[in-house]
## 1
Amino acid sequence: MTEEIIIAGFGGQGVLSMGQILCYGGVMQGKEVSWMPSYGPEMRGGTANCTAIISDEQISSPVLNEFDTAIVLNQPSMDKFEDAVKPGGLLIYEENGMTRKPERTDINVCSIAAYDESVRMNNTKVFNMIVIGGFLKVRPILELSNVIDGLKKVLPERYHHLVPLNEEAIHKGMDIIKSEHKAD
Amino acid sequence: MKGNEALAEAAIRAGADAYFGYPITPQSEVIEYLMRENPVDRTGMQVLQAESEIAAINMVYGAAGCGKRVMTSSSSPGVSLKMEGISYIAGAELPCVLVNVVRAGPGLGTIQPSQSDYFQAVKGGGHGDYKMIVLAPATVQESVDYVKLGFELAFKYRNPVMILSDGIIGQMMEKVELFEQQPRSKEEPEWATVGKKEGRDSVIVTSLQLQSEEQEKVNLRLQSKYREVEKNEVMYETYNCEDAEYLFAAFGSCARITRKAMEMARKKGIKVGLIRPQTLYPFPVDAISELSERMKGILTVEMNAGQMVEDVRLAVNGKTPVEHFGRFGGVIPSPEEILEALEQKIIGG
C-alpha cells in the first residue's frame, strides 16, 4: 500500500497539521511516512500545501507531481491540483467557498461541507479533523486509534483535553462526506 | 521529525560542546530547536545566537581552537558570509561541523530548495588550497547520522566537515531513529589552546605563515591529509547497477526523486541504475569510473545548472557520454521529467 496525498488550502485551515496527523498516524501503524510542506512566504490567509506519503515500502521521492488523493480546501487549490490526481484517484473538496465543481470524470470526487459542520459544532478549529474523517471514510488506510495517537503527537500536551472533541469531529466527517462522482 | 530539528537534536546527542548560529530560512529550525531545548541543562552544551554569520563562524573558530566539538549551520547566503572563517579554520587545521541547508542563488535568491552550492562546498568557496569533507544526506535519518559521523571525521582529520543538506531535507518530516546520547569529551587535544598547564607545550593556533617555504609545508601537509581522506572515507550507494545499461548520478534529495524516476524507467523496461555519492568530497571517483565501463551513458540529475556533472565527467574520463539534467532557482524536478531527460539526452542522444 502506498498513498500519496496532497493537502492544499488557505493558511490557517490546518492544512500542514492534517498532513502531520496522518503521517504520525502512519508511524503508529508501522508505516513508512514522509511529510513535505510548502514553506514559501506563506501566512494566515495565503495558500499552503503539504505532501504526505504513507507506505508499506521505503519512500523514494518526498516531492511528487501526481497524487493518489488530493484534498483541496479552496478554489485556487482545486485549480492547481485537480489535474495532479492520478486517473482513478480521489479528489476531496470542501464545499464552502468553491466557485466551480471539479471537471475531471476519470477520478473519484467527493465533497464535504466541513466548514458548515464545524460551525454547527461551535468550533471552527476542528474543521481540518472533520476533513480527515471524511478522507478516512473513503480511504480507510489507517485505523482511527492510530490517527488519534498521531493527533496526540502533533497537539501540544496542554491541548490534550481537546482530543475527544477532535475524535468527534473525525466521526462527523465520516458521516457527512458525499460521493459526487465515481471514476469512469 | 523535521529534518532541521532532527539535525539539531543530533548535535546535542553527538556530545557537541557548542552551537553558534544565525537564523536564515530554510534552516532556522536548527537554532529554534536548540534554543527551545536549552541543552545546557541536558549536557552543558552552549547555544548562542550570534550577531551575524561572520560572528558565528569566528566563534566556531575560537571554540574549535580550544579543542571543543562545535557546530554551526546556515543556508546559502549565510554560508557565503562564513567562507572567510571556514578557510581560516581549514588553514589552522581545526575540527568543526558546518551545515548548509541550501537554497537557490545567486545573491539572496529564493528560499526554495536547491543544490547550487555544490561547487562552493566541494571546490572551496573560501580562498586557498583547502578541502572540506562534504557529506550529502538524502534522508532525515542521514541528517542525524552525519552529525555524529561529521564530528568523528572532523576530529580524526582535524578538518572542517560540511553537511550539505537542502530545503527539502531540512523542511520535510519522516521517521528517524536517534542515536544514544554521547558524553561530551573531556579530552584536551595537544593541539588545542587550553592554557599552558604544567607539562604542556605552548600552542599557537594560526593560519598565518609569512615564509613561503613554511606555507608550502603547510600546504603539503594538508594535501597529504586530503589524500588520506580520499583513500579512507569515500561513501556512496548504488541501486540496480548490476544489470544496468544506463546510469543516473544524483546526490541528496535529488537522488530520491531520481530513484523514483529509476523505478518508473524500470517499469518501462529501461535498464537504468543509480549511484548516489554520500560523500561529495571525497568523491567516489573509482566507483563511477568502474561503473562507466559498462554503461551506455550517464545522466547526472541536480538542482543546479550542472556542478557535480564536472566531477562525474572527470571520473568517467571519456569512457561513456555524460550529460546533465537540472532544474534550478528553487524548482524541484519531477520524476517524469527526469525520465524524459534520460530518454532524450542519453538513450536517444
Note: The helical segments of chain A are 15-28, 75-81, 114-120, 127-138, 144-154, 163-176.
## 2
Amino acid sequence: MSIDVRAYLKPHVHMSLEERLALVKRRFADESHISVDQDAFRADPQKAVLFICPAQVFKHNLDDDSCIVNYEDCLECGTCQVTRRYTTWNNPRGGYGVTYHYG
Amino acid sequence: MSDERFEVVIVGAGPAGAAAALVLAREGVEVLVLERGDFPGAKNLFGGILYTSVVNDLLPEFWERAPIERHIVNRRWLTLDEDTQIGLDLKSAKFDVPPFNNTFTALRSKWDRWFAEQAEEAGAMIICETNVEELIVEQGKVRGVRTGREDGDVEADVVILAEGANALLAERAGFRPQMGPRNRVNAVKEVIALPPEIIEDRFHLEGRQGMALEYFGGAVKGTVGSGFIYTNHDSLSVGVGCLIEEYLRLNIAPYDMLDDFKAHPMIAPLLRGGETVEYATKMIPEDSYDALSDLYEDGLLLIGDCAGLVNPSIHHEGTNLAMASGVAAAEAVLSARKANDFSKARLAEYRERLEDSWVMKDLKRYRDTVHFLLENREMVNEYPDLAIRLVRRYFTLDDTPKDDVLKELWKTIRDEVSFFKAARQMWRARKTML
C-alpha cells in the first residue's frame, strides 16, 4: 500500500462544535443529570456556564432569560458545577452518557 | 443492610482503581471494582502521556503486550507569540531502548481497559455500567457504597475512592475541600487521525518512536495553562487546558481556545491532512499539597485524581501518581487487613507511604507553582514574549552591526524589566517551578 502524500498536505478541515460533538458515542438517558437554579443563573452577570461548558450544554433562552440544559450533549467533565454552583451535576445512570473510543 | 459484601470496594476502574485492585487481588483479597462506564476507560481522558515507572514495577516489560501508542524520544517545550516560536528541544537515543524513559503516548479508552483486565486476571471483580450514588456512612465510618442498581448496596471493610477529577462522592461526603475554578483545569482535546508514515515523516520519527510538544505563553493566550501535540501511532492528540478561572477571566470558551491554538501558524502545518475523529474534555485537579484532605478516613481511602494527586508543574504527571497512590492504598489495606483494623488511625499508613515516596515529595516541591504563576503573570505572559523578541532580534539579519544589536537588546531588557522584581521572581520560580 502506498500513500498519496499530497492528500495530507491539505489544510486540516475545521469542524464546527456540533460536528465534533456528533463524533462522540453517547447513550441518552430519559432524565437530565444536570439541573440549573434559574434565579441564580439570571443573577450571574457573566452567565459563565454558557461558555465554560466545552460541549455548550447550556443555552440562553432570551425570551425569559432562562437557561436551557441540553444534557444529551454533556461530555461529563463536571466543569459547570465547579464553575458555578447554581448548576447541579450528577453522574448519568451507570452505562449511560459518554463512551470515548480513543480517550 | 445489604446482601453483598466484599473485603474491598473500589469506586472507579481508571489507573488508580485498577492499580489498587491489581495489588489487592494478587494477595487474594476479595475486591470489587465498580465502574460507571460501559468498560474501564470508557469515560476517561488525559492529554496523552503515560508515565510508567509504576506500571513497569507491577507488570514488567508491559510494552511488549500493552496497547501503548509510541515511546517518546523527542520532547519540545515551546512558547509562542502571534507568529514566532522558541523553545527547548530534547531528543535522545537513550530514550529509544527499554524501558523507553517510562514515557509513552497512550489513548485511555484502550490503555485503561487493558490495565483493568490485568487486575481482573489477577482475580479482581469489575462490574461496569454501575454508578455509585453515595457512600454509606454510619457514625462517621464508611461501611460501603450505594449503587444505582436495584438492591444495590454493597458493604466492605474498606472503600477505596478512585472516582476521578470530578470528585462528587468525596466532596459531598465532606472528605475533600470544595472543587473550584482555582483548583480545577478544564482541558479539551481532539484526536486527529493521520497515517503512521505521515506522522513519522512529519515529526522525524522512526518505527514506534514518538514526540511530545508542549506549548506555553501565547499558545494559550498567556494563561496559566498549556497546549500540546502528542504523536499516537496513527493519530495526534491535540489540545489545550488552563485553570477554569483563566477562561472566566478572559471570557473565552475552551473550544475557542483550542481552535485558536490549532489555527496558529506554528501549529496548523503540523495538523495538515488530519481528520478529527474525536473531541473530548476533562477536568484536571490542581489542588496544592497544602489543600489536600487527609486522604484517609474510617473505612475509606482517596486515590488518584479525586485525592488531588497531580503534579501541576511542567512535568504534568497524573496517571503515574494515580497508579502509585493505588499501590500505596492497597499496601495500607493489606496491613490493615492483617490487623483486622480499618480505622482512620490504622489507614493513616496510606498517607505515610505516600509521604515517604516521590508522590508527596513532588507535590510538596510544586505546592506553590500554580499560585505563584497566578500572582506573577509575567512568567507566562510578558517574559516569554520578551524572550521571543530578544531571540528573534538577535538572529534577525540586517545591516546593523552585532555590537549595536546587543546594545539594543540590553536596552529592551532595561526598559521592560524591573530588575529587582524580575530577580525576585526568578528566585521564586527556581524554588516553586523547577
Note: Chain B touches chain A through 66 residues (CB under 8 Å).
## 3
Amino acid sequence: MKNRDITLHINGEEYRLNVAVNRTLLDVLRDELGMTETKYGCGTGECGACTVLVEDKAINSCLTLAATMDGKRITTAAGRADFGRLDHIQQAFVDEAAIQCGYCTPGMVMKTASLLAKNPDPSEAEIRHALEGNICRCTGYEKIVKAVKKAAQTMPGRAAVAERCKEAVQ
Amino acid sequence: MSSRILPDFDLLLPQSVAEAVELLSTHRDRITVMAGGTDVMVAMKFAQSPAQLMSLENVPGLAYVLFDPEKGLRIGAKATVADLLAQAEVKRHYRALWHAAQTFATGQVRNTATVLGNLLRASPAGDCSCAIYAIGGVVVLQGSSGRREVGIDDFWLSYGVTARRPDELAVELILPPPAAGSRSAFKRMTRVSEDLAKLNVAVRLEMSGNTCIDARLAMGCVAPTPLRLTRTEALLKGRELTAEVLQRVAASVPGEISPIDDKRSTAEYRKQVSGVLLRRAIQEACGAA
C-alpha cells in the first residue's frame, strides 16, 4: 500500500487521516495538522526535539512511520497545557529560566513527563540519564536539570503518585 | 541525501507471523523488515530505498520477554530494549545484557528499538549484540519450510550480513538459563553517552571460587562483526584469576583484534585500550571493581 487510513488520538482529540506511507509521525503532526510545537531537529533520532508520547512512552516522532500508528494515543507538548494554562512541567521550565532559544524545550518537556510518570522523585543522576536523548545547544543543561527537579516537587498529587510507584516496585 | 524525506516504498502490514513469512518468501530480496525502525528509518533517509517495507506493527504476540530458571530467557522479535530493562530477572541473571541495555542509545530509542533488531543490524558496534555474544544463545528463524535455530556464534557472517535467509523472519532469541557460578559484565567507551561505542566488551565467566572454569569474551568495534576472543579465552580457562593471569589476558587482546580508524576513534587507540577494558570487565564480573 502507498496510502493508509488511520485514526490518531492526539491530545485527547480524534483525527481520521489518510497518510502516505512514507510520512513520519512528525511530518503528519507538523505539515498536515499544523501542530508545530513538536520540532524537527536532526531527523535521525539523536537530538530529541521531536519527542512525543505514544501510549505514554517517549519516542522520536522523526523515526516513526505515521501509517503504523493507527489507533494510538499521542501526546505533544501543547497537549500538556489546559487552554493556554501551562502545566507544572512547563511552568517549572519558565520559572527556572531553562529556555533560551526554546527549540529543544517541547522535547525536553515531553521527556520530563515520561520520566516523572515512572519516577516522581528522580535523583540528579536519574534526570541526566533520562535526558541523554535530548540535546540543548544553549543552556548547558544546568537550568534544565533544575527545572526537572522543580517539576517533580510541584507535581499535582505528588504524594499519591510516589505511593503508587513504591507499590509497583514492591 | 536528506534526513527529512523518506523514499517512496510500498508498505506491507502482515497480521501474523505466517503472513509475514509468506510475504518474505514471495518478495524475497526486495523486502526490508522493520520492527522498531530506529535503524531502518535512518538507513532509508540516507542510503537504502527498499521496494517494499514490511512493518511488524500488526503482528501480535512477539513483544515478550519471558524468564524461566530451567529454560532461560526468551526475547520476542518485537520486545524493545526498554521491555528488557523492565524485567528484574534480566538485571539479576544476565548482568552484561542488562548493563548494555541500560546504556544503549537514548531513552526514546530504547522505547522503540528491539533487541533482535540490534542483532539483525549486524553492526560491530551493537551494545546488546556484544553482551548477547558473550552470554551465548540461539536465534530462532521462521521460514516457509519451518523453524530453525542458529547459534549466536554462527549468526553474523560479515558487516551487515546475518545467517537469516531472505525468506525467513527472526522470531525470537533464547539465552541459556543462569548457572551457579556464572557471572557476566559489559563495558563500553564513548565520547558522550548517546554515541555509538568506540569500543565495547562483554564477558561471561563460569567461576569456581577464584578459578575460571570457562569463559566467553566478546568485543565490538574491532572487526567487521562483533568478535569473540577465543585465544584470550583459552588463557583464562582452568586458571585462578591472579594479577599475573589478568595481565597476560590483557596483553593477548591487541593481537586478536583488527580495528580500523573511523570518526569515533583510531585503530591505534582501540588496540591500546582493548586489553585494559577487557581486564576491567573481568574484574567487574568477579565483583572486584
Note: Chain B has three domains: 10-55, 65-175, 183-285.
